[in-house]
Amino acid sequence: SCILDNGLTQPVLAVVWDGTGYGPDQTVWGGEFLLVKDGSFERVGYLRPFRLPGGEQAVIDCRRPALGILNEVFPRDFEAHIPETLKFSAQELRVLSSMLQKGLNSPLTSSAGRLFDAVAGLLGLSRQQSFEGQAPMALEALLQGRSGEERYDFSISGNRPLILDWQACVLGILEDLQRGLEPALMALRFHNGLAQIIAALAARIGERQVVLSGGCFQNRYLTERVIEALRAVGLKPYWHRLIPPNDGGIAVGQLVAGGR
After folding, report:
1. What is the value of pTM for the model shown?
2. pLDDT band, residue 260 (cuts 50/70/90)
3. What count of other Cβ atoms lies within 10 Å of the Cβ of residue 121?
4. Which of 11, 42, 242, 258 has its CA 20 to 30 A from that of 66?
5. Interval 240-250 mean pLDDT
């Protein structure tokens, strides 16, 4: 839909960041870099996967994706690294820990939307979401009136597909929580770090035309910073103008794909 919105011809690198999409590998997608050409796509990059304990319940309770991420970073003793902001009861933690350890009702996801949920959970911004995107919106709202270049580190591993790894960012957040850093500055560092690593990964792929699509790019700060970062590495970014980047644009994209 974003390709159509901008009247582009293929090939195009599509950065598709959203909440939930069922991938052909039977995992939950949502943080993808797709090289679109010849009417098909290749998954050339994605966010490092983590588990969602409780499945759909993890979309509502953003403490759960935070727990899934901690389980990836500290697989042997993640319970020792749970910050006070998550506020689990002993019973909740016992059940969720068992689910993660056994892989029960804990699907793998590469979703950027769930990464935003997890960071919002770590910062203590939201527990139960009453609508999709509530926690990420709270995270973005912290940026009102904020500016600066501080950022958390992310890394890229693998060959093709490349993996965008958030582990250093999570470790930075945990360290800043212990230091008592204000949540607004942590939110700023998170957004800035994401923008830079998106551009770095896109530069490795090397396709000059880059489209930004998916619900995460309703986040104005993230979108503007990614556009700046892509231009800085010599790439040409495109974003939604008439067609919405979230689920409102899916049908248009399906029509385009189905007509090829």
Report:
1. 0.95
2. low
3. 26
4. 42
5. 93
The single-letter DSSP state of residue 49 is P
Q: Tell me the one-letter amino acid at 15.
A: V
Strand partners, 162: 45
Cis-peptide, bond into residue 244, ω within 30° of zero? no
User: Tokens in use for 118?
Assistant: 């997890």
Q: How many alpha carbons lie under 13 Å from residue 154 in its C-beta half-sphere? A: 25
What is the enclosing helix (H) or strand (E) of 187?
helix 183-205
CB 165 within 8 A of CB 155: yes
- The residues facing 109 across adjacent strands are 28, 50
Length of the chain: 260
Amino acid type, 213 = S
Alpha-carbon span 11 to 78, nearest angstrom? 42
Tally of CA atoms within 13 A in the half-sphere of 147 that contains its CB: 2
User: Element (H or E) spanning 239, and its range?
Assistant: strand 236-239
What is the identity of the amino acid at 130?
S
Average model confidence (pLDDT) for the chain?
Answer: 94
Bridge partners (DSSP) listed for residue 156: 164
